[in-house]
Amino acid sequence: MREKLIFTACFFVLNSCNMSDDVIDLPGGSTYIIEGSCSNRLAVATPGLSCGWIEPIKDLKFNDDFICAVSTDSISCRLKLEDIPIEKRKYTVIDVRNGKVYCYLNKSEYLSFWQKYIRDEDIKVE
After folding, report:
1. For residue 31, how far is the Cα from the chain centroid?
2. Cis link prior to 47 (omega < 30° from 0)?
3. pLDDT digits (tens, 9 = 90+) for 37-60
4. Nearest-angstrom CA–CA distance, 61 and 94
5. With b meaning 16 or more CB within 10 Å and e meaning fewer, what string describes 71-109?
6. Widest pairwise Cα distance in the chain
7. Per-residue b/e over 32-41, b at no fewer than 16 CB within 10 Å?
8. How far apart are CA 47 and CA 59, in angstroms?
9. Beta-bridge mates of residue 66
10. Which of 3, 17, 35, 121 could hold 39 in an S-S bridge, CB 3.0 to 4.6 Å?
11. Could you tell me if 59 and 48 are in contact, meaning their C-beta atoms sit under 8 angstroms apart?
């Protein structure tokens, strides 16, 4: 009886963990943690930044040289990206080659950076 009780307890403990979470190791040592629409976050590998954790991530694209993330506030996180007003979006670009992080760019700065340095065919969409 005791063995069945221990087995049952272990079964519930192990299955209560969220098995759907995923962690993606990105270039430059950053990490993308996927836990659901309002809990996706990016851990930036560069220490001492004001944006060391970026959340909630609504869109993430990367290649070997750059990581591009779009985040929002916690109120808008349940909306689709196209339904989030532009003033509520925060754009972050990580230049992996040079170890620089450009936190919370506005849309025009982000698009300018995107057009200058990144080609769409190089980007992996997650």
Report:
1. 8
2. no
3. 788 999 888 766 667 788 899 888
4. 11
5. bbeeebbeeeeeebeeeebbbbbbbbeeeebbbebeeee
6. 68
7. bbbeeebebb
8. 23
9. 95
10. 35
11. no
